[in-house]
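Quick entry between incubations.
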Amino acid sequence: MVEERVERRLAAIMAADVVGYSRLMEADEGGTLNRLKALRRDIIDPAIAGHSGRMVKLMGDGALVEFASAVDAVTCAIEIQKKTRQFGESGGDSTSLFRIGINVGDIIVDGDDIYGDGVNIAARIEALAEPGEVYLSRTSADQVRDKLP
Amino acid sequence: MVEERVERRLAAIMAADVVGYSRLMEADEGGTLNRLKALRRDIIDPAIAGHSGRMVKLMGDGALVEFASAVDAVTCAIEIQKKTRQFGESGGDSTSLFRIGINVGDIIVDGDDIYGDGVNIAARIEALAEPGEVYLSRTSADQVRDKLP
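Done. Structure below.
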């Protein structure tokens, strides 16, 4: 079997974006950026680090995060949504700021970047998610069933 | 959410065993052990190394191997079965010596050892496999569909 050898690994991919980002920026550019920066520092980055995730890239209002474990990815996503809701409720801000989608895939690794269906599907699932919710593809749901409290 | 933090990772688990091991050993203990040793040295170990696998444990006539990628695990398993068949045909020996099962799971890691459903399912799939064949669980089939030549 002749095959070009690419580096692959199984990973849980979390895609997240900000609901209504353009509208928020139009209404209050500085305030929106400051609020997102604070959320990232206080909620998102610590949640990712606490579940051994790796921020692969930030694209405007979106983020792509890789986890070695699907259980860790889902637990992290739930924590982000829960804490963002608490933050919003305490400050009177939007309580459903993020959409999050998670997929498990056999992805292609090229240095620090990742490619393949597994990544694309995470982004598509995320686009379907309701604000404040975490949506899972079947392959990620298969891996967390009976493993979450 | 209070939860004991265990180390987890997504992995493709390959379980393999020797078909009719007890019968082979009864018929020719020394010859069987020598043949298995040669197969391991010439076919199995190089195939595992060539696909970045890690031999987790050998248990009598069985082996448990971990791969970071499902595509790598399945390609490796097919290579082992194909080369074992060629070896058998050239030497007049059994051409269907191994049963192989593969599963993808979010496993628990403890040092060099691995635990969890993901591992148990690989062993159950392997027990169902026909001699000389590679059987895949649904979670592993999901990950290699359209990715193998």
